[in-house]
Write a structure and sequence with these properties.
The complex is a heterodimer of chains A (145) and B (141).
Chain A: H1 3-16, H2 22-39, H3 47-62, H4 68-73, H5 75-82, H6 88-97, H7 103-110, H8 123-136
Chain B: E1 5-8, H1 16-20, H2 48-56, E2 61-63, E3 72-79, E4 85-91, E5 97-100, E6 106-109, H3 114-121, E7 129-137
Antiparallel strand pairs in B: 1-6, 2-7, 3-4, 3-7, 4-5, 5-6
Classes of the chains: A mainly alpha (145), B alpha+beta (141).
């Protein structure tokens, strides 16, 4: 499934969210979930499609969260960590596009942490440190950081 | 529902704890792995006591009311049903409160109407209720 299709599904879910009971909302979400998995099973998705689907779902889930713990324990995020080293180039490209809470995933997968102690919590500085690391490791050979 | 006013665009540069601590450039959260900022010599644990200690490093002390007090600024810490900290807000001089909502926007609101506002945006996101009010003398310099 591509990003446009992902967005369409979210928009459908948003549209259906108003003026219905909690039970009906749950049924709609279950139906959309079934529809998504029926038409776009993970076995037919490329690694990139799977990564971006998980990333979009994660970002949507954690938008309002201030708890870093809840952000990194999110199930979509954990599945990205579970993808292992193959996810590193895609995570780094996402980080290049927009600083976000990818640091725990990067550290979990790589076993490294290039962020200086004084930059903890500074997403822009943390992103720069990881992009420099990615460039040095050859994960971002085709883009400037 | 009381009016909630959006006062800044969405940004992921800081979270509610930082915002309540008058910072807008980093995330505060006490995860043990030290990925995010947390004051030195303060327990890196998600308890109300640890969050109170974090604000005590900034000069805050316990307070028994949420009224505007001349010469003081106040913060409120919200917890969920299990007592785990979920959110923090800071008081404005007009008596209203301001909050950063996760990776999203800053808002101005009444102290106890934030939970309903957030649930209306995302029915799975519960900011909990106010557990503690802290205050410190305003630095007027």
């Amino acid at each position: 499934m591509n990003i446009a299709q992902e967005i369409e599904i979210f928009e459908k879910a948003e549209t259906f969210s108003y003026g219905v009971s909690t039970e009906a909302q749950s049924a709609i979400e279950a139906m959309l979930d079934w529809e998504e998995h029926y038409y776009f099973p993970e076995s037919r998705q490329s690694i990139e499609e799977l990564f971006y689907r998980l990333a979009i779902n994660w970002k949507n889930d954690v938008k309002l969260k201030s708890s870093a713990t809840e952000i990194i324990l999110n199930s979509f995020y954990q599945r990205i960590i579970g993808m292992g080293p193959v996810a590193l180039p895609m995570i780094l490209r996402e980080l290049k596009r927009e600083p976000d809470h990818w640091f725990w995933a990067l550290q979990s997968i790589s076993g490294e942490n290039p962020v200086r102690p004084q930059d903890r919590g500074r997403l822009t500085e943390m992103s720069k440190a990881w992009l420099k690391w990615g460039k040095e490791k050859g994960y971002l050979y085709d883009i400037d950081v | 529902m009381s009016e909630v006013v959006v006062i800044s665009p969405a940004t992921s540069e800081y979270n509610c704890i930082a915002w309540a601590a008058n910072e807008d450039f980093r995330w505060w959260w006490p995860i043990p792995e030290k990925l995010y900022y947390w004051p030195e010599n303060t327990p890196r644990e998600e308890t109300l006591e640890a969050f109170v200690k974090a604000f005590e490093t900034l000069g805050y002390v316990a307070c028994d009311n949420d009224n505007v007090e001349h010469g003081f600024e106040k913060v409120a810490i919200y917890v969920d049903k299990s007592g785990k900290p979920k959110h923090a807000a800071k008081q404005l001089r007009n008596g209203k409160w301001t909050s950063k909502l996760g990776n999203y926007i800053d808002v101005e609101h009444e102290l106890n109407c934030l939970r309903e506002y957030v649930l209306n945006i995302d029915k799975t996101e519960d900011y909990g209720t106010v557990a503690v009010i802290l205050k410190r003398e305003l630095d007027e310099t």
